[in-house]
Amino acid sequence: MFFQKLKPSRIIKFLKNFHHNDAVCPSTLSGMDYLTDPRLNKGLAFTLEERQILGIHGLQPARVKTQEEQIELCKISLSRYTDSLNKYLYLNNLHERNERNFYRLISENIEQILPIVYTPTIGLVCQKFGLVYRRPKGLFITIHDKGYIYQVLKNWPENDVKLICVTDGERILGLGDLGASGMGIAIGKLSVCTALAGVDPSICLPIALDVGTNNETQLNDPIYVGLREKRISGSLYDEFLDEFMAAVVKKYGQYTLVQFEDFGNKNAFRLLDKYKKKYCTFNDDIQGTGAVVVSGFMTSERVTKKSMKNCNYLFFGAGEASIGIANLTVRALEKQGLNYKEACDKIFLFDIDGLITINRDLDEHKKKFAKNLPKTRNLMELIETIKPDFLIGASTVSGAFTPEILQKLARIHKRPVIFALSNPTHLTECTPEEALKHTNGQALIATGSPFPKFSFNGATFKPSQSNNAYIFPGMALGIIETQLKHIEDDLFLVAAETLSNHVTDEDLQFGSLYPPLTKIKEISLRIATNIMKYSFKKGYSGLYPEPDDKESFIRSKLYDYFYKPSLPSQWSWPQQSGKPKVLL
Ligand code: NAI
Fold first, then answer.
1. What pTM value is reported for the model?
2. Torsion-angle region of residue 332: left (phi > 0), alpha (psi -120 to 50) or beta?
3. Model confidence pLDDT, tens digit, residues 294-305
4. Whole-number Cα distances in Å, 470 to 28, 235, 288, 482, 495
5. CATH T-level topology, domain 287-470
6. What kind of fold does domain 68-279 have according to CATH?
7. Of 421, 427, 465, best ligand 1 pocket probe by most atoms within 8 Å of the beta carbon
C-alpha cells in the first residue's frame, strides 16, 4: 500500500519544505490539527492524497466533497433551525470548526445570514452571551487587569493585528448595559468586516473591556460571564482606557484601527473627542451611522428633487446615532455651500425632554443645534412649526411615529423622508408598511432593522435598511490598507457619497434608498478604494510607495475563503509508487 511505502525521510522533507500559508508552518502541526484548527480544516474536502500524507486517512468517511457541496449542506443545516438564536449557535459552531466555510456562507448569502450574525439577532446573542460562549474569539480585559493590559494583549495568539473592535458593553444596540456580554457585538462586527469587505480574520481582534455592569438582570443572571461588579467610572475608567489605547499602539503600532462600539452616550463622545486626533480610531455608532444615513439623504434628492441644503431635519432622539448623523449632515450641507451656522440651523433635535432649545442645560455636542424656540415636548406641534422634510427616529421608542404624525407629514410634503432607525425590530418608530399606509404611499422610508418586502397599491415595495454594514467594513478595509494615523471626518462623507452612487434607478422604483445587501461586497471595495484615493490626495496616508492602481492593491489584500491545497504545489507522488492506491 502506498502509505506504507512512503519513506519517513520523505515525509520529514515534505514537512520541512511546506508552508501552507504564511501563517502556518506545518512542521509544528500534526494531522489532527488539520481537522481541529478552524483555519486549516476542510472537512470532507481533504483529498485522498492529503488525507494519507497528513495522517488523517481513516478518520473521515470515504466520500470526498467539494467546498460547494459543503456550503449547500450548511444551508440545509441552517434552515432546519427556526429560532434565530439557534441559527446563530449553528453558525457559531461552524465558525469554530471551519473558518473558510463560515465566511463563505455569510459572504454568498448576505441577505439571509447578515441578520443572524449582526443586527437584529446579535442583540439577543449579547443578552444570552453566557449561553453562547464556547471558545475564545476575542480578549476580555477587566478593570482588574489595569497596569497589565499590554501583557493581556500579548496573550492573543496573533501578532499582526490591524483591526480591533472594542466595547465596554454599556449601551448594546437599543438594549442598554450588557457589560461583558457586549463581546457578542464586537465579534459580530468583525465577522462582518471579513465576510463583506474581505478583511483577513487573522488581523481582527474583538475586545470587551469589562469594567462591570449596572444591569441588575445581568448581575443576578447565573449565566452572566463578566465581573459581578458595578460599572466603574471617573478617573479610574479614564486611566484604564488611556492605558488600553497606549498598549494597543505599543503592541500593534499606530496604524491599527480601534473601532469603538456601543459605549454609553457620554463616554462615546468624550472618548472620540479625546482620541480621534491621537489614534487611528472611529466610533461606528456615531460616525458610521452618520455616513450610512447621510448617504440615504443624498439619494433621496434624486426622488424629492429638492437639494439637501434647502431641507429641514428633525431628529427624534438626540443620542449617539442622531448626533453622528447631524454632524455629518452639517458637513454635507457645507459642501453644498451653506456656512456652518446656516447648516446647524437646519437641524432640530428632540430628546426625552423635548426640543433642544438654547435655554436647556446641554453638553457641547448638542449646543450648536439648540434653537431659540419655545420649549415643547409635543412632537406633532413641532412638526407643524418646522415642517421637516426629513424625520429621523433614533430614540428606541417603539411606534413613536404614529399614524397621525405620518399623516401630518404627508400633508406637508409630497415626498416626506422618514428614517425609523431604532433597533432591534420591535423598537422601530414605525414599520415601512405603516409609513406607506399612512402617507398614501408618499413617504420614502428606511429603517434600522430589516423588514420583508410587501405589496402596496399593487406594487412591490422593498424596504431599505439603513444598515451600518454598508459602511464600516469598507471603511475599515480602506483605513487599514491606507495606513492612517487618525481618521478625518471628511472620509465619512467620501463613504456616504460612494454608497449613494451605488443606488440605481431600479432600486428607487422599488422605494429603496439603498442598494440590495447583495451588493455590499462590491460597495465595500469601492469605499475602501475611494478612501485610499482621497487620503493620498489629502496627504493623510502613511502607505509608501503610493500604489498606482489602488483598487488592485486593495484587492490583492483580500481574504480568500476558497479552500487551498493542504499539500505544497511542488509535492508529487514518489515515482516508484505511481498513482496513490485507494486504501478503501
Ligand atoms: P442613545 O441612547 O445614545 O440615544 C437615545 C436618544 O433617544 C436619547 O437622546 C434619548 O433622550 C432619546 N429618547 C429616549 N426616549 C425618548 C422619548 N420618549 N422621546 C424622545 N426622545 C427619547 O442611543 P443611540 O445610539 O442614538 O441609538 C438609538 C437607536 O438607534 C437604537 O435603537 C440603535 O439601535 C439605533 N441605531 C440604528 C442605526 C442604524 O440603523 N444604522 C445605527 C445606530 C443606532
1. 0.92
2. alpha
3. 999 999 999 999
4. 40, 36, 9, 19, 9
5. Rossmann fold (3.40.50)
6. Rossmann fold (3.40.50)
7. 421
